[in-house]
Amino acid sequence: MSGSEIAALIAAIAFLLLVVFLISTLLKVNKALKSVNETVAQTTKTLDVVTGDVDVLTQQVEALLVKSNTLLDDVNGKVADTDPLFKAIGELGETVSDLNSSSRHLVASVKKGGKRTAEAGLASRAMRLFRRN
Question: What is the DSSP letter of 2?
């Protein structure tokens, strides 16, 4: 074997090793791509399920919001209807308070009048006693 044949043999072996290394690398890349494809497929399935669930949930939330708005309108209407009642109750409370105040003044006046009457009665008796004597 001559030097050029040995060089060609070494080059062929190096090329063979390079091809084996590339094949090994390509097999690993192929395996990784298959794994990525499976992951993407599973993710797509999961996203489809989640999208369907979100659509259903969105419809239910919209229905709930409509019902909540209707209920809130109803409550606001009823509160507006009860406002005059509470106003009347407040005015009734003021009237009762005024009545109590007037009653107290009347009782105080009657007490004063009763005292004066009692004093006048005593004075009248005293004058009768002085006249008899």
Answer: -
CA gap 90, 40 in Å, rounded = 70
User: What is the C-alpha to C-alpha distance for residues 61 and 48, in angstroms, rounded to an integer?
Assistant: 20
Which runs of consecutive H residues, i.e. helices, occur in the chain?
A: 3-132
Q: Taken in order 15, 20, 25, 26, is the CA torsion positive or negative?
A: positive
Residues whose CB falls within 8 Å of the CB of residue 9, separated by 6 or more in sequence, listed in order: 1
CA 110 to chain centre: 60
- Percentage of residues of the chain with pLDDT beyond 70: 82
Q: Which two tokens stand for residue 35?
A: 């794994």
The residue whose two tokens read 């004597």 is: 133
In this prediction, residue 133 has a pLDDT band, given cuts at 50, 70 and 90, of low
